[in-house]
Specification:
33% strand; 7-stranded mixed beta sheet; 242 residues; alpha/beta
Length: 242
């Protein structure tokens, strides 16, 4: 987690708030927002949670990086309906009671930081346990079918006046994982921060299989946060499950 702590200062330049995520969440549940509780998993510095707290009854953001959570806590200190926790996403069932949330959101390719299909299945089971009866699990990962089948070796570079963020992939079929190499260049001082992490290359069919094993019966796949169909060329894979 040292890498994420080191980039926390620049996180909002790399991944600014995507307001389409707010719209996606808003359309996921028919009940009025001010009656709903939301869990934001992998909340990072808390930007999405902060926006959600303006409309929803109760918002909880969790992340495993202390530097990120500390920034989120500072930013959200004036919100009475907002809580940030340093929390492992595999321990939801012990951290929260059953029927705790109406919506669980896990965006930003967070899910594939888990180490195995078994851990993903356990995560899905735990989310099912803490969701209310009509609750929704929403998550977004990279469309790894596209990465694997089209032999994609990089994602588009993110660049603005402050940073340049390069992202490269190397797929290892025997492991079912990709090496995700990143290079963050800070323009004002010419510093760079490099990192490489192994991520699960979860195909759509495996995601669906594990969700069904965890007890989810209504599963929808989308190719973007506008809720358009998932295609072989979609960059993200987005799921709504209940």
């Amino acid at each position: 987690m040292d890498f994420y702590e080191s980039i926390s200062k620049y996180y909002h330049y790399i991944f600014p708030l995507n307001k389409m995520q707010l719209d996606f969440i808003g359309k996921s549940h028919p009940q009025a927002k001010d009656q709903l509780s939301v869990l934001d998993i992998g909340c990072a510095i808390g930007d999405l949670s902060l926006e959600l707290a303006k409309s929803y009854q109760k918002v909880t953001g969790i992340d495993l990086d202390k530097g990120m959570i500390d920034k989120a806590i500072t930013k959200g200190k004036n919100y009475k309906n907002l809580e940030f926790r340093l929390q492992n996403m595999l321990e939801l069932d012990t951290a929260f009671g059953s029927n705790s949330f109406d919506i669980i959101a896990c965006f930003g390719n967070t899910l594939v930081h888990l180490n195995s299909d078994e851990e993903v299945l356990q995560f899905f089971k735990n989310t099912k346990a803490v969701l209310k009866k009509d609750g929704k699990l929403l998550f977004q990962i990279i469309n790894y079918d596209r990465i694997i089948d089209q032999k994609i070796d990089h994602l588009p570079t993110i660049e603005n006046e402050v940073i340049k963020f390069e992202r490269n992939y190397e797929y290892h079929s025997s492991l079912g994982k990709v090496d995700f190499e990143t290079i963050l260049s800070i323009k004002k001082n010419d510093n760079s921060i490099q990192n490489c992490i192994a991520l699960l290359a979860l195909r759509k069919s495996k995601v669906e299989e594990l969700l069904q094993k965890a007890g989810f019966t209504n599963i929808s796949f989308f190719g973007n946060f506008k809720r358009e169909d998932l295609t072989e060329n979609s960059m993200p894979l987005i799921v709504e499950a209940s």
